[in-house]
Amino acid sequence: MTLDITPKDVLIVVDVQYDFLPGGSLAVAGGDEIVPLINTLAKRFTNVVLTQDWHPADHISFASQHPGMEPFQTIELPYGTQVLWPDHCVWNTHGAALSADLDIPHAQLVIRKGYNRAVDSYSGFQEADRMTRTGLTGYLAERRLGKLYVVGIATDFCVSWTALDAADAGLDVSVVEDATRAIDSNGSLARAWANMQTAGVGRLVSKDILG
Ligand code: VGL
Ligand code: ZN
User: Fold this and answer.
1) Which of 61, 93, 152, 194 is least surrounded by Cβ atoms within 10 Å, i.e. has the fewest?
2) Cβ(87) to ligand 1 under 6 A?
3) pLDDT tens digits, 73-101
4) Any ligand 1 atom below 6 A from CB of 85
5) Ligand 1 mutation pick, 116, 181, 183, 189, max ligand atoms within 8 A of CB
6) Res 50: pLDDT
7) CA–CA distance, 197 with 68 (Å, rounded to integer)
8) How many of the other CB atoms lie within 10 Å of CB of 72?
9) Of 122, 154, 177, 111, which is closest to residue 20 (Cα–Cα)?
10) What is the CATH number of domain 10-210?
11) For the chain, which ranges sit under pLDDT 70?
């Protein structure tokens, strides 16, 4: 059965940026493969929101800021455990740009996140301190928008954190699995799906929408 996408539903396209695509500094395997599918899905939606990871060059999530530490190790920060990353998505660099292969001219909002040096922000809704809001909840409420469908990169970080926050806000949210790709560091992908299942996030494939 094909799902009925209404004019009130929203596709959230997470972090389809060069640094997360093959050749980028935090390349996610197969990230480029999902771009055509995301473009096809986006044509079914009246409302598309894009997110864009957008860090200052000295961002606290970068291993380069912590002498002796390597990417994918973790540190403890005031807001909790932080995975350290290669430098990525530094604002105004090519790596931070949205892929030019995205063909979604009708996208209406780009949420930038991770611009505060001392706090990471995987979710499109709030920073990792779980206090600082991006405004996306208010935008969706004011526009009276409905169900959310989340696609993009990376399934186990920015996609799942965005979906979990949406569920937490009481929104109806699903992840379209074949339109995502994962980093999968230290079991993060299995953990993300378990957390999403517990939170009531739907798990779909693109065929459920496209037929
Ligand atoms: C992301 C790690 C660091 C993501 C962003 O888009 O999933 N992952 N920054
Ligand atoms: Zn980042």
Assistant:
1) 194
2) no
3) 999 999 999 999 999 999 999 999 999 99
4) yes
5) 183
6) 98
7) 37
8) 14
9) 154
10) 3.40.50.850
11) none
Residue 211 in contact with residue 2, Cβ under 8 Å? yes
Ligand 1 within 6 A of 161 CB? no
CA of 1 to the centre of ligand 1 (A): 33
Number of the ligand 1 atom closest to the C-alpha atom of 114: 9
**In residues, how long is the chain?**
211
Two tokens, residue 193: 């799906």
Q: pTM (2 decimals)?
A: 0.98
pLDDT at site 31? 98
- Distance between Cα 89 and ligand 1 center (Å): 9
